[in-house]
Design brief:
Layout (H helix, E strand, L loop, with lengths): L3 E4 H30 L8 H25 L1 E4 L15 E6 L5 E7 L10 E3 L3 H6 L7 E6 L2 E11 L2
Parallel strand pairs: 1-2, 4-5
Antiparallel strand pairs: 3-4, 3-7, 6-7
Helix pairs in contact: 1-2
């Protein structure tokens, strides 16, 4: 099994979701199925069908999260000694060479990426272009809109 990098926060969110699914959602759907069965004929029982569908979704999500956690390589960015280089978990401030606009991104696992939280996937073109570079280096990113040039302003491990 290949290890998939994940931050401590990302692993914590998955564990919390898994706990909620197992302790809250699963028992609730089992109860909903039991209630629907008590209403009689299952062949025309929409409540039963909906509850069974929900149960399938919950069980599938539980299996998916357990698989992700089993293959996770949990990395704490605060413990990284990246020596000023961009690595997984690092927070990188970049400046667009053309526009001068600055953005800050944290490089995280695929399941943790969220543009609204300034978290970019380690497998994204931006992260792939930045990894291994240091403060002051330039990076060229092949984006759907064309090539973009960035300068790395700062690298932090928080």
């Amino acid at each position: 099994m290949t290890k998939v990098p994940m931050t401590v926060q990302g692993a914590g969110r998955l564990k919390a979701e898994l706990q909620r699914l197992k302790s809250v959602e699963r028992p609730a759907v089992v109860q909903a199925i039991a209630d629907a069965r008590s209403h009689g004929d299952l062949s025309e029982n929409a409540d039963y069908d909906a509850a069974r569908e929900r149960q399938g979704f919950i069980e599938g999500r539980i299996a998916e999260i357990e698989h992700k956690l089993a293959g996770a390589q949990v990395i704490d960015p605060a413990l990284i000694d990246g020596d000023g280089r961009v690595v997984f978990g690092a927070t990188v401030e970049i400046e667009d060479v053309e526009s001068g606009a600055r953005r800050t991104w944290q490089i995280v696992g695929d399941d943790e990426a969220d543009v609204r939280e300034n978290k970019v996937s380690v497998s994204s073109p931006l992260a792939r272009a930045l990894i291994g570079k240091s403060e002051g280096d330039s990076a060229e990113v092949q984006a759907p809109g064309g090539s973009r040039h960035y300068e790395i302003v700062a690298v932090r491990y928080a």
